[in-house]
Write a structure and sequence with these properties.
The structure holds three protein chains of three kinds.
Chain A (H helix, E strand, L loop, with lengths): L2 H38 L4 H31 L5
Chain B lengths: L10 E5 L2 E4 H20 L9 H21 L7 H16 L13 H31 L8 H36 L6 H31 L15
Antiparallel strand pairs in B: 1-2
Chain C lengths: L4 H134 L3 H18 L2 H9 L4 E4 L5 H14 L7 E4 L8 E3 L4 E2 L3 H21 L1
Parallel strand pairs in C: 1-2
Antiparallel strand pairs in C: 1-3, 3-4
The chains are: A mainly alpha, B mainly alpha, C mainly alpha.
């Protein structure tokens, strides 16, 4: 295990860690806004929740990007 | 503990010089199931719909309405592509429920192929709607300075389309594999339920983004959007 | 990591084939079925619309017919009313005319009766006056009137034309009528005077008739010379009747 491995593992962990923070905050804001909207307009709950799911998936894609980067570092590291 | 790389696909066998990998075989299976199923279901369609025909018509109607609302255009030319993308992605993502089957969308090549097809369809429909010259000119909208940005966006959005689908499905499969190898047989069931939801949402997002891309390609000629004829349907 | 280009190409081909297959086996038939049902529904709706239009037209026709019937009935009724009215007024007019005629007739008959009664009364009054006059005259001495009446007779005879005087003279037997018997001297004087007026006079008889009241008359078989109060009264009565008749006619 040379230093490239160590740095790759650390990079993967940090990528997941940092890459999970911002989408988590964003998802929290999105859910809060959706709850607010549903509370204001309960009859629009269906539309709001459908849009919310799509939005959450889009936000989650950011975390998924980070996961892909981490997996690339772990399993397909071009420098290892 | 060593995990198999989720980024590699296994070559099952070769036909002549062509190596046939596992996602291709799975895709063939899905194609066979879909085609035979549709052939059986649509063999006899009548004016008075049976239960299955009503369900089929509901699915097709929903997809057509989505196309009409999103692209603001008559859905007939785009329905086969968009509908096939959605149905294939849904079935492919949910195929992980079968034991021993890895969804073909968990392989980067399949997602790249799908993104490539959406990319080609965007170009094709844009050229068909605006003409080659008109479509090329649409990249200079609203200013000539934005041409490189538009060109880069054309590729990056296809790339993000590919990576989004790949990362979601692959991560789900990888997570389930990790949990399965750590805990046991029944523990990853909640994860699989979450994976079903994710798969459905990703299929919808992929189809919706394809609609948005094609729609923006065909509508850039007329910046004044014509009055959308929203169909009154449930 | 490496991209398996064969897999990528195969998957792209697979997806394109799947697009074609699903378009062939799913979307085209289902859209066809939806379109067919849509057209069938449109057809049905159009049929229903046309049937509704036909029913509406039929209803309108029936309404028009009913209206026509009602108008016809109204016209007939008004015509009947008008004819009844005309008949009634005609009958009324006829009755009025008839009544007027009858009233006029009744009035006329009443007038006639009144006039006849008045005439009768006048005649009665005349007769009564004659009787009263004769009763009054009878109180005068016959001889007093005889000369005067004889003179008047003579004057009347002398005024007659010659032919009539001759015929009167030849009209035998001529009777001299007086209300009271005359004495011989008077008779002779009278005969003499008459013979002067009527040459060739045969000897006349003397007859008494008190109905004459006063006067002197010559009665022949063919001729008559009246000269008496009775004759005057008769003449006046006749004139009275003549007047009445003339008045009635007028």
């Amino acid at each position: 295990m040379n230093w490239i491995h160590i740095v790759s593992i650390l990079g993967a962990a940090f990528a997941i860690a940092i890459g999970a923070i911002a989408p988590a905050l964003a998802q929290g804001k999105a859910v809060a806004a959706a709850m607010d909207a549903i509370a204001r307009q309960p009859e629009a709950a269906n539309t709001v929740s459908r849009t919310l799911f799509v939005g959450l998936a889009m936000i989650e894609t950011m975390a998924i990007y980070c996961l892909v980067i981490a997996l690339l570092l772990l399993f397909a590291n071009p420098f290892a | 503990m060593k995990f198999a790389s989720p980024l590699e696909s296994h070559i099952l066998f070769t036909i002549g010089p062509v190596p046939i990998s596992q996602p291709v075989v799975t895709t063939w299976g899905i194609m066979a199931v879909l085609t035979i199923g549709c052939w059986l279901l649509t063999r006899r369609l009548g004016l008075r719909p049976t239960r299955t025909q009503a369900a089929l018509e509901l699915v097709v109607e929903v997809i057509a309405r989505q196309i009409r609302e999103t692209m603001d255009a008559e859905p007939r030319p785009y329905l086969p592509l968009i509908g096939t993308l959605f149905i294939f992605l849904l079935v492919a993502n949910w195929s992980s429920l079968l034991p021993g089957v890895e969804p073909p969308t968990a392989a980067l090549e399949t997602d790249a192929a799908l993104a490539l097809i959406v990319f080609g369809a965007t170009l094709w429909f844009g050229v068909r709607a605006l003409g080659a010259r008109g479509y090329l000119r649409s990249f200079a909208q609203p200013s000539i300075l934005l041409v490189p940005l538009n060109l880069v966006e054309l590729f990056t959005r296809s790339f993000s389309l590919m990576v989004r689908l790949f990362g979601n499905v692959m991560s789900g499969v990888f997570m389930i594999g990790v949990v399965l190898s750590l805990a046991g047989l029944l523990v990853p069931i909640p994860l699989m339920a979450l994976e079903m939801l994710t798969g459905a949402v990703q299929a919808y997002i992929f189809g919706a983004l394809a609609m948005v891309f094609i729609g923006s390609a065909i509508s850039e000629a007329n910046p004044s959007p014509k009055a959308p004829n929203h169909e009154v349907s449930s | 990591m490496r991209i398996d280009w064969w897999t990528l190409a195969l998957q792209a081909i697979n997806v394109v084939i799947l697009v074609w297959l699903l378009a062939r086996f799913l979307f085209r038939p289902v859209m066809g079925a939806i379109t067919a049902r849509q057209t069938a529904m449109d057809q049905l709706l159009a049929d229903a619309e046309s049937a509704k239009a036909a029913a509406l037209k039929l209803e309108a026709d029936l309404k028009a017919q009913t209206d026509a019937f009602a108008a016809d009935g109204e016209a007939r009724r008004s015509a009947l009313l008008a004819s009844i009215e005309a008949e009634r007024s005609r009958l009324l007019d006829a009755a009025t005319i008839e009544t007027d005629a009858k009233a006029k007739q009744a009035l006329a008959s009443v007038e006639d009766a009144q006039k006849g009664m008045a005439t009768q009364l006048e005649e009665n009054a005349a007769v009564l006056a004659g009787q009263m006059a004769s009763a009054l005259l009878r109180r005068l001495p016959a001889a007093g009137t005889t000369d005067m009446m004889f003179t008047a007779l003579l004057e009347r005879v002398e005024r007659l034309p010659v032919e009539e005087r001759r015929a009167l003279a030849g009209d035998t037997p001529l009777a001299i009528v007086t209300p009271a018997a005359l004495d011989g001297e008077t008779q002779a004087r009278c005969v003499q005077k008459l013979e002067e007026a009527l040459p060739g006079l045969a000897a006349p008889n003397f007859t008494v008739d008190p109905a004459l009241i006063a006067g002197f008359e010559l009665h022949g078989p063919h001729m008559l010379v009246r000269n008496s109060w009775r004759a005057d009264l008769d003449t006046q009565l006749a004139a009275l009747k003549e007047d009445d008749h003339a008045g009635l006619r007028g």
